[in-house]
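Regression report. Comparing outputs from two consecutive submissions.

Submission 1:
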Amino acid sequence: MTIDDLKMLTKTELASVLNISIRSLQRKMNKGEVPEPVKIGASLRWVRSLIQEWILAGCPKNYVHQGGK
């Protein structure tokens, strides 16, 4: 794993990656349809490599990272 694998996405960036609005992302978060974010202070962030893994897995609900690399 490299430092690039650990780059974080903001809510706005994640919504853009998923091609949905921030409001739609918030709804999906409330339903548990996206991976849990990491809380840094008052900010929410998603590890980019984990989001890529989730997308490649077909965006399953209640996704739990399986470890690995």
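Submission 2:
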Amino acid sequence: MNVTTGAALSASPAHAQTGTGAAEGAADRANAAGGGLERIVVTANRRDQLVQDTPLAVSAFTQDTLQNNQVKDLASLTALVPSLVVEPHSDSGGVHVYMRGVGSANHTELGDPAVAFYVDGIYLPRPQGATALMYDLSHVEVARGPQGTLNGRNSTAGAVNLVSAAPNTTKLLGSASIVVGNHHRIQTQGMINIPFGPNIALRVAAIKDSHDGYVDFARGSNVPPGADRYGAQDQSGARATLLWKILPTLKATFIADYYEDQGAGSIYLPIETQGRDRWSAVIDTPGVLDQSITTYKTKWNWALNDAVDVQYLGSWSRLKRSNASDADAGLYLGFKAENRTEWGQFDSHSNELQFRSAEGGAIEWVAGLFEFGEKNKIRFDIDRSQISEAALQQDLANGNVIFVQPTVGQYASAMTFIQGDRQLKSKAVFAQGSWNLDERYKVTAGARYTKDHKFDRGGQNWACPNWPDNAPRGTTVLTPNQVAPARAPPAR
């Protein structure tokens, strides 16, 4: 259950508005012609088009639609996009994203997501980027199917692009809202748009969203007083966007974006509860998550002439993360599995140059060059331990905390992965063209060439002892049928 309140302010000069842009004008005309039916302008085809006129399998949602459906991130967007599946992952603080059943479960610094995630057309390579909050957006675009001949970074299953609201050069605007819900949820957000003249404006928006966890510590849990329960979230974000219309044919946008998550992370719970409360677990490692993403972006649009437009997209981003999670979630009493990211830093940059033809001709085309690089470093630790059956039964009989501290001869092992310099360098050239045979038929063809180079310098793995014999007493390897990612219980 959520209760929402909001406020808005607006002030504008007495003269008529000008320079709203082709995209806004197209949307306004469509809304007027459609009797108020919402029409959204998208860029999935690398040109401003109404979503109804875009020849792609794409869904689009405005900020109002997202708010009305309580969509705050990619995981909650699945309620509006049935072919989209988002699975939280406790070890990494990120998510696994699947489109039409196709995705990638490799969430490490080596993997590339099958569903690409973009913010303002800028690719975010790590799965943690897909946990960012959705606020003060123009709209969200979800494109299904392979993407590569229109985007700088290719993806196998689809792409999700968050398009932030652009500054307005004619109006002073502002808004604020608060959402209150169960589990002590409080979400506050606000926005202010300041025009400094007919050609320059600044828009600043911020959000904070927090709520308590919903996975109770079951009897036998060994956690310090005041520890957050799994599922607790404490997220915040801020964005500043500067729009500068340098010339009638040249426009530049500069964006600084920050996001952080300091919650408890997620945990896997058993599908078969074996008589226990569905929303509880015997925890010996409370969840800790501390990650932040800082991104600087710029976009330049230049109408070279009546036939060709040029667009440049550039970015630099840094993700920092540390977290700890209970990998066994009390499924096997007396066995402890703890996963920790002691430190991690992921730096990336991208440069994309696009050329596109003007709309309305018999032949429409888009071509581009793309360069991308990542430099990652991380230390990831895994600890496993197990007490004797006699010690476990004694603790259970006495109602004590199950303190997993192996004695001589009992099971224990540990491993640490220290990767100080893992890099990815990628270059690509792509193009797509369409020949409009008539009003009903069109022929489209595209091509792409990509060269990726990944390497690891000086990485070290340390293990002691008994590795990889890390299965708990009385079982083998956990299978997808034995566990399921914990999601928030129904409102109450």
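Expected: both submissions complete independently.
Actual: both completed, but the second showed a warning that disappeared on reload.
Relevant detail on submission 2: Helices lie at 22-33, 63-68, 74-77, 389-398.
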